[in-house]
Amino acid sequence: MMNRRALLSNVAAAGAVISGAAALHPALAASVAKPDSASLMLPPDHLTASTTDRLPLTWHKARTKILQARLAAAGIDGILLTDQWNIIYFTGLFHTNTERMMHAFIPTVGDHPVWFYPALDRDLVRTWWFEDGDMYFDWLNVEGAAPQEGKVVKGPTQDLWRWALTGLKKRGFAGKTLAADKELVPSAQATVVDVLGKPMAAAASDCMFLRERKTPEELALTRRAYAYFDRIHAFARDLLLTHGTDLTDFDVASAATKFGTDLIMADIKHDGRPHTAVGIQVDIECRVGQATGYPHPNQFLYNKIERGKALQIAGGVQIGGCGGELYRPYMIAPRTAHMEKLWTVTRDCCLMQMDLSRKGTECADVAFPIHSYQVKQGVQKYVYHRPAHGEGMEGHQPPYLALGDHTVLDTGMCFSVEPGLFDPETGTGSNFSDMFVVEPAGPSLQMSRLPWSEEWAWIKI
Predict the structure, then answer these.
(1) Residue 307 CB neighbours (<10 A)
(2) Most CB contacts within 10 A, which of 140, 141, 156, 430?
(3) Do 101 and 116 form a contact (C-beta atoms < 8 A)?
C-alpha cells in the first residue's frame, strides 16, 4: 500500500489534476494511461462564478433591511436572533456556536444590531458590524465578573437570559411587541413577561423565508465553490483510475481533501485576522464496498479499494458559507447487473428531480413521482429516504422534497439530489448528490459541472 505521507506531500506539490495524480506513484503512473476526468465535464451555463471570497457586509445589511420591513408589516418592533445561522445570515458575523450565549437584537427601526456576547468573542464582534452591545465574561457567569479587567468575582450564577432582556429594557423595548427567531419554552417566556411586560412572538418563519430563497450573489458564490468541487472530483477520479487497488478509501478522501484545500486557499485571502477566509469547508469523504450499502454508515472508513465494488466520493465544499454537497457513486468493473440497475435507477431519478423541481410545484409533487418510479422499477426494498433536503449555510435546511412537505417551490430554493438506493446485503449503494436550484421558469439549474454518465462512473481499475 502506498505510503500516506508521500501521497499527501505529492498531492501538495501537484500543479494540476493529472500531474498531481501521476506524481503520487511514478512506477504505477508509467504503466497506466493518464486519465483526464476534467475533459468529461458538462459545458458552462448562464451562471457566472463570483470572484469574491464572501458576501460583503452591504449584502447582509440589505437582507436585514428586508427582514425589518417584514417584521414592521406584522407590527413587530424587533427580533432577537438566537440561532447561529440566523445571526451569520443577517449580520455577517461568522462565529463558533457553543454553550455560550450569543444573541443579536435587530430593532425594526434602526440601522444596527444590539449584541449580547461573551468576552471570548469580543474581538470578532467589535471589529465587525458593531455600534451597541453588552458583554458578559463567560458561561457560567457571575454578575460583575471581568477577569480580563482584573475583576475576579465569586458568587451566584447569573441568569444571562434575564440579563439580555434587561439590556433590551434599558434600551426602551419594555412593553414593545417583540419576537424571537424561535418559539420560546415556557420558562424563557415567563422571564420575558417578567422583564419586558409582554411575551415574545415566534418569527422563525420570517427568517427562514429569506434564507430559503438564495439571492444572485449567494448563487454566484456557490457556483465558485462548486467550480473547485468539480476539480476535486476530477482529481479523485483520476487518482482512482491511476492507482485504484493500491489505495484505501481513506487514502482517496485524505488526498482529495488536501488537494481541494490547497486549491481553494491559493485563491482565498487569508492573513490570520478575523472576517477573512470565513465559512470555508472542504470535507471530502470516500467509502467503498459494504459501507456504501448504508445511507449513514457509523464505522470509520478505512477499507481497501477492490474491483467489483461500489464506491462513493462525497462531501461538502463551502466558501463564505455558500456551497453544498457533491457526490458521485462509482461501480467498479467487473459489475453485476444488480449494481448497474441500482446506479441507473438512481441516476434517472436525479434527472427526474431536475425536471420536476419547477417554480410553483409542491415539494410533495416532486417526491411522489420519484418514489413511484422507484417502486415501478422494483427497487423499493432499497429506498431508505426522501429524494432531497433543502440546502443552506447550515447544510440541511427546509423545505424538503418529501411526501409530507407541501411547500411550494420558489425561485432560488436550493436542494440536494439524493434519491439514493442502498443494499446492505451486497454492499452496494448508489447515491448521487449535487445542488439543484429552482429557476424563475423551466427545470432547475445544476450547480456542478459533473456528468451523470456511465462513462464517468462505470470505471475499470
Answers:
(1) 13
(2) 430
(3) yes
> Is the entire prediction scored with pTM above 0.90?
yes
CB-based contact 266:19 (threshold 8 Å): no
Partnered with residue 400 across adjacent β-strands are 389
State the pLDDT at residue 4.
53
Closest CA relative to residue 135, chosen from 158, 163, 113, 116? 116
pLDDT digits (tens, 9 = 90+) for 83-101: 999 999 999 999 999 999 9
Of 89, 102, 123, nearest to 273 by C-alpha is 123
What CATH number was assigned to the domain covering residues 4-51+213-459? Answer: 3.90.230.10
C-alpha cell at 45: 451555463
Q: How many residues does the chain have?
A: 461
Side chain identity, residue 186: P
Nearest partner of 258 among 238, 283, 278, 288, judged by Cα:
283
Domain boundaries for CATH 3.90.230.10 within the chain? 4-51+213-459
**321, 217 contact by CB (below 8 A):** no
CA 346, CA 350: separation in Å to the nearest integer? 6
Are the C-beta atoms of residues 89 and 213 closer than 8 Å to each other?
Answer: no
Bridging pattern class, strands 103-107 and 114-118: antiparallel
CATH 3.40.350.10 range(s) for the chain read 75-202
CA torsion sign for 85, 89, 95, 99 is negative
The C-alpha cell at 82 is 438566537
* CB-neighbour burial class of residue 440 (10 A; exposed 0-12, middle 13-18, buried 19+): exposed
Residue 124 pLDDT greater than 50, yes or no: yes
Contact 319, 54 (CB under 8 A): yes
Rounded CA-CA distance 418/68 in Å is 35
Terminal C-alpha separation, the chain: 15
Strands 458-459 and 421-423: unpaired
Angle of the 84-91 helix axis to the 57-73 helix axis, nearest 10: 110
pLDDT digits (tens, 9 = 90+) for 364-383: 999 999 999 999 999 999 99
Using CA of residue 259, residue 260, residue 262, residue 267, what is the dihedral sign?
positive
HSE value, Cβ hemisphere, 13 Å, CA-based, for 198: 15
CATH no. of 75-202: 3.40.350.10
Cell of 124: 470578532
Residue with cell 429506498: 383
CA atoms within 13 A on the CB side of 90: 31
Nearest 10 degrees: Cα torsion 350, 233, 398, 342: 30
Rounded distance between C-alpha atoms, residue 77 and residue 403, angstroms: 37
Beta carbons within 10 angstroms of residue 171's beta carbon: 15
